[in-house]
Amino acid sequence: MTSKATKGVYSAAITPVGADGRPDTQKLTSYCKQIIADGLTGVAPTGTTSEGNSLPFDWRLKLPAAFAEAGIPTDRAIIGTGSSSADDAAALTKAGLEAGYNNALVLPPFYYKNPSDEGVFAYYARLIEQVGSDSLRIYLYHFPAMSAVPISIPLIQRLKQEFGPIIAGLKDSSGDYEGSLAFVGAADDFDVFPSNEGVLVDGLAKGCGGIISATTQISASLSKRTLDATGEEQERLQSLLNDVRQVIAQYPLMAAVKQIQVWKTGDDSWTELFPPLVKLSDEQKNTLRAELEALPEECGIII
User: Fold this and answer.
1) CB-based burial label for 268 (10 Å; 0-12, 13-18, 19+)
2) Most buried among 20, 78, 113, 187, using CB within 10 Å?
3) What strands, in cross-sheet order, belong to the sheet with 137-142?
């Protein structure tokens, strides 16, 4: 049975680097299983926080099979398959489907700037036609600050009309919460995931599918407690969750999340990033640690 990704709180999982300088597959699958066990609904690997477009193409093709072998539930992973090439994106998406992972997070074509909606529609249409499966579920990726190619509501509506349930939803990394809510109303059966857990409770109340965030992997247990709570307790936990987000978001996200993982595990290899990203400076590390240690113990941040 074909299913969309389960609604809830996802993390854009960081990618560990092995001794050979390539992504460490076993370490990544173990990490993803752990943060789900810690309380997250699911994971979104090979997106922005995962340094997805800096990762080797051959490795990305093999990752879904590794997820399947590790037993990561297929409805709890939204695998990033975006590429400037529709054919490459189709190949990555098809590899996911072949391994049982039908939910794909797909950037628009991001090299040529200011393409028309007609051009972006043609990109997604080509991908869908090449994959050739009604089981496919695409989550459009709206991140104009990074891709410089926004997803418009008319484009969503045209894609939805043409491809129906294959167009399953959208991740909104624009930081414009009102824009996220506008996407919610763009089409029926369309799950919108803002990228900031600071709007988790309000977003769910207003029809969002949940959150896909870089920082929820740091606050997994608090995210689950917030999701499960009600009333004033939920509001209180939401405030704490937002505090955690605000601290980490002051720093380069990928480097900061990886540094926190080093403190949590004692494994220095987590600090490694793929070019062109670089590690936090000593000053950044010192201030980040101090700010995390100043958070209430109830936030559950282990460093």
Assistant:
1) exposed
2) 78
3) 79-80, 103-106, 137-142, 167-172, 191-194
pLDDT in tens, 87-141: 999 999 999 999 999 999 999 999 999 999 999 999 999 999 999 999 999 999 9
CB-side exposure of 141: number of CA atoms within 13 Å? 29
Return the CA Rg of the chain. 18
CB 49 within 8 A of CB 249: no
Burial 133-167 (b: 16+ CB within 10 A, else e): eeebbbbbbbbbeebebbbeeebbebbbeebeebb
Residue type present at position 192 = V
176/179 Cα distance (integer angstroms):
5
Q: Which residues contact 294 (CB under 8 A, 6 or more apart)?
A: none
8-228: in CATH 2.30.30.30 = no
pTM for this prediction: 0.96
- pLDDT tens track for 259-285: 999 999 999 999 999 999 999 999 999
Residue from 129, 146, 203, 214 nearest 169 by CA? 203
List the structure tokens of 46: 């090979």
CA distance 250 to 200: 19
Q: How far apart are CA 97 and CA 100, in angstroms?
A: 5
* DSSP 8-class letter at 165: G
What kind and span of H or E run contains 284?
helix 282-293
Could you tell me the two tokens for 88?
């490459």
pLDDT digits 0-9 by tens, 25-53 = 999 999 999 999 999 999 999 999 999 99
